Amino acid sequence: MITILETAPLNTVQDPGRPGYRNLGVGSSGVMDPLALQIGNTLLGNEPDAACIELQTYPFVIRFETPTNFAVTGITAPLELDGEPVLSWSVATAQAGQVLRIGIPSAGARGYVCLGGGIQVPVVLGSRSTQLRGGFGGLDGRFLETGDTLETHPATTILSGYGAVSPSAVLGSASAGEKTITLRAIPGTDYLRFDEESRKRFWEEAWRITPQSNRVGYRLSGAPLSLQKRVELRSYGIIPGIVQVPPAGEPIVQLADANTAGGYPRIATVIEADLWRLAQARIGTRIRFQDVDHQTGIAAMQPIRAYLDDLRMMATLYRQSAQSRNGSRIGSKA
To answer: Which CATH number describes the domain made up of 180-292?
Structure first.
């Protein structure tokens, strides 16, 4: 079990999401950065759908009430366990009573506190993710608050001394220290409805992420895009990555908490392989879209799969070693 000692709004319990209910008007929710969650769960040997805490505001402080293995992924930030530094993207074991403090990140925007065995909140419609709009999932369908407790699996083996190389170092930088990031995108269904100048400018413009951005979508500011002629579209299904253009002409990139349907013209869709980069982009970051085709978008997932396969093999070996070492059991004497 853990207790929340300090938090701010926007921090929630999330897992990979709640697919299969969009036809009923229920969005998928889930983590904004699915790669960071996969890394944390892989390091700890969790099931792929194990739930974590997604951090959007800092500082965040928890106390471990039972021995717990943990990893903080997604960000590079000052981490302290009872005042001693802990590395991001690495596994550590906290003893009962120890306090973990997570400060403001120097790189990345969303952090993921992954715990051995995951967080035990009720499964609702096949997921533990918080659905804020519907007020269900996670912990009572709401943001975490100071004083909340979350059930976890007590650790039986001390895990430490290994971690992951951040995906930005292996797959290319997301937003660490950068003011502009490039996202690959496929022209959308309504691409040709936009005038030629707007289509050109969409790819060339450095769009800025505005403060009116959240888990529903990132609103971008720049020179407005124009249609060749006004059009009323029927509503269609929405998935994360779709770039819509409302009447004001400034794009919105739909994200984890997106509506299930919408009717604004679709100029493009960010490929799945780059959604984690967008999730880690901060307010004020500028975005350039790179025009790619479907084949390129599909092939872009291969380096991510290879990265995760290598990580899975390494983490398995380290966990097996920890379990076989003398003194690796919780509570044993060195």
So the answer is: 2.40.100.10
